[in-house]
Design a protein that fits this description.
Blueprint: H1 2-11, E1 26-31, H2 35-48, E2 51-54, E3 62-66, H3 71-80, E4 84-89, H4 92-108, H5 125-138, E5 142-149, E6 155-161, E7 173-178, H6 187-200, H7 205-209, E8 212-216, H8 221-229, H9 283-295, E9 299-307, E10 311-314, H10 325-340, E11 351-354, H11 355-358, H12 366-372, E12 377-383, E13 386-387, E14 393-395, H13 403-424
Parallel strand pairs: 7-8, 7-9, 9-12, 10-11
Antiparallel strand pairs: 1-3, 1-4, 2-3, 5-6, 6-8, 10-12, 13-14
C-alpha cells in the first residue's frame, strides 16, 4: 500500500527532493532455513511493497529494502515465518547521499591512467558513448555499432573488437554485456576494463588475434540514466503503457526473453520482476536478441554481468540443466578460481552453479535464452556486494575504492573463459 501511495503521488506531479523517496527506508538482511520459508519471504514483496535486492535461500541470506512505514509489519511478518532478520542500513536516503559524496570525491581525484576516460569512477551514458567513438577513431580493431533505440530513443551501442573486421568466420566470438539492470552501477567498470585490456593495454595477444569480441557496456540506457537523475535503485527499463495512468513504469529486461516466458516472473507492472506484455516486447531485449542471432554461429561464450552476490550462474532458471551442464560447471569454476586469485581478501569466494539451485528460480532471462538457442556457454556473473566500514551489506551502493578492482578481478574471469574457448572452440 505504501508503495502504491508513493507512486500515486509521483503520478499526479508532486515533486520530491532528490533521494527523498528513500528517506526513512531501511535495508534488512534476511536468513531462511528452508525453501518454503524462502518462498514465503518472496511473497512479501508484493504484499508489503518491498524491493528484494537479493533473494534469501537456505544457502545464502537475502537483502530487502523496506519502506519506513512498513518496518514494524515487515519485522512481524518475518518473525512469524520463523526467519531471521538483521538491520543493515538504517536510512537508505542517507546511505545514497554518502555514496554520492564519496563518488564525487573520487571522481575529482587525478587518475594515474592516461586517456580521457578513467577506470576508477562511474561514468554516465554520454561519457561512455564519447569514449566508444574515441576508441573507434583511434584503433583499427574497434567498430562502434548501434543495436537500435531504447524505449526513450537512446542508442543501444556496442563495440566490435576484431583484428579481421569480423570477416574471419573461423574465429569464435565472445559477448560481454553489462547494465541490463539499471541500478547495478558497479558492473559498468567491469565492461570498460575488458575493453581496456582488449584495445588499449593488450597483455595477451591471442585473446585479440584469435577471438572476435562484442561488448555491450550499457544494455539498458534509459534505466541507467534514470537511476542517476531520479531513482537510484531503479532496476527496469522505462517503458510505459503497462497500467492505467502509467502509475508503474518499466519492464525487467532480464525476464523479457523468450524462454519459459512468464512462468517464474511477475505479471504485476509494479513489480521489480515484471516480465512485460510478451517476449521481446521491449526494444532493449530485442536489440540483444538481434546481436546474438546475428552472430550465433560463432558465439562461444556469453557473459551477462550483474551485481551482487559473488556468483557465476548458468541455466536453466527453472532448475532443468542444459545437456552440457558439466562443461558449464567446469568452465564456471575456472572463471571463479581466476577471480578468487586476485580478489580482495575481504570479499567472499565466488560460488558456481545452476541459478535455480543456488540463487532462485527465474524465467525469461537473457543467458537462459542464449543457452537455449544453441550458444555453448552462457553465464550470469554476480559481482561482490559492497560492505561499509561497519561490515554492513550495502548491496548495490558503490564503494569508490572498489570500482577499478571490480574491473581487474572480473577481467580475470572473462579471460579464463575466453582461454577455454580458444582451447575448445567448436570452430576448429
Amino acid at each position: 500500500m505504501y508503495k502504491f501511495v508513493f507512486l500515486l503521488a509521483l503520478s499526479i506531479g508532486l515533486a520530491l527532493a532528490k533521494h527523498e523517496e528513500y528517506d526513512g527506508s531501511l535495508v534488512y538482511q534476511v536468513k531462511v532455513s528452508n525453501v518454503e520459508q524462502a518462498q514465503q519471504i518472496y511473497a512479501l514483496e508484493n504484499k508489503l511493497g518491498l524491493d528484494m535486492w537479493s533473494y534469501a535461500a537456505p544457502s545464502s541470506p537475502g537483502l530487502v529494502l523496506v519502506p519506513g512505514p512498513m518496518r514494524q509489519r515487515f519485522q512481524t511478518e518475518v518473525a512469524a515465518l520463523g526467519a531471521q532478520y538483521e538491520l543493515q542500513i538504517q536510512n537508505v536516503k542517507e546511505a545514497i547521499e554518502l555514496e554520492e559524496k564519496l563518488l564525487a570525491t573520487a571522481a575529482s581525484r587525478n587518475s594515474s591512467r592516461s586517456g580521457r576516460l578513467t577506470l576508477d569512477k562511474i561514468h554516465r551514458y554520454a561519457e561512455i558513448n564519447a569514449y566508444l567513438d574515441e576508441l573507434a577513431e583511434k584503433y583499427e580493431t574497434v567498430t562502434v555499432e548501434s543495436a537500435g533505440k531504447s524505449f526513450e530513443g537512446r542508442d543501444i551501442r556496442y563495440l566490435k573488437i576484431s583484428t579481421s573486421k569480423f570477416e574471419d568466420l573461423s574465429k569464435p566470438v565472445v559477448v560481454v554485456q553489462s547494465m541490463l539492470h539499471a541500478r547495478e552501477w558497479v558492473t559498468l567498470p567491469a565492461a570498460l576494463y575488458a575493453i581496456e585490456k582488449l584495445v588499449v593495454d593488450i597483455s595477451d595477444r591471442d585473446l585479440v588475434d584469435k577471438i572476435d569480441w562484442i561488448i555491450i557496456p550499457i544494455a539498458n540506457p534509459d534505466g541507467y540514466e534514470f537511476s542517476h537523475t531520479n531513482t537510484r535503485f531503479w532496476r527496469k527499463n522505462r517503458s510505459t503503457g503497462h497500467i492505467i495512468g502509467n502509475l508503474c513504469q518499466g519492464v525487467d529486461l532480464n525476464r523479457n526473453f523468450d524462454i519459459n516466458f512468464g512462468s517464474l516472473s511477475s505479471s504485476n507492472p509494479c513489480s521489480e520482476t515484471f516480465h512485460g506484455p510478451g517476449p521481446f516486447s521491449e526494444p532493449e531485449s530485442l536489440a540483444i536478441r538481434n546481436i546474438v542471432l546475428g552472430n550465433m554461429n560463432r558465439i562461444e561464450l556469453y557473459l551477462d554481468i550483474h551485481s551482487f552476490g559473488s556468483l557465476i550462474l548458468y541455466g536453466y532458471g527453472n532448475g532443468d540443466l542444459p545437456a552440457n551442464a558439466l562443461t558449464l560447471n567446469v568452465v564456471g569454476v575456472r572463471m571463479a578460481q581466476a577471480i578468487d586469485a586476485v580478489k580482495w581478501e575481504s570479499k567472499p569466494n565466488y560460488r558456481v552453479g545452476n541459478v535455480a539451485l543456488i540463487l532462485y528460480r527465474v524465467s525469461g532471462s537473457a543467458p537462459d535464452y542464449v543457452q537455449a538457442i544453441g550458444i555453448p556457454l552462457a553465464y550470469t556473473y554476480e559481482l561482490p556486494a559492497y560492505r561499509n566500514q561497519n561490515n554492513s551489506l550495502n548491496g548495490f551502493l558503490v564503494d569508490p575504492d572498489f570500482i577499478e578492482q571490480a574491473g581487474v578481478e572480473t577481467w580475470e574471469g572473462i579471460k579464463a573463459g575466453a582461454k577455454w574457448v580458444l582451447q575448445n572452440t567448436r570452430r576448429k
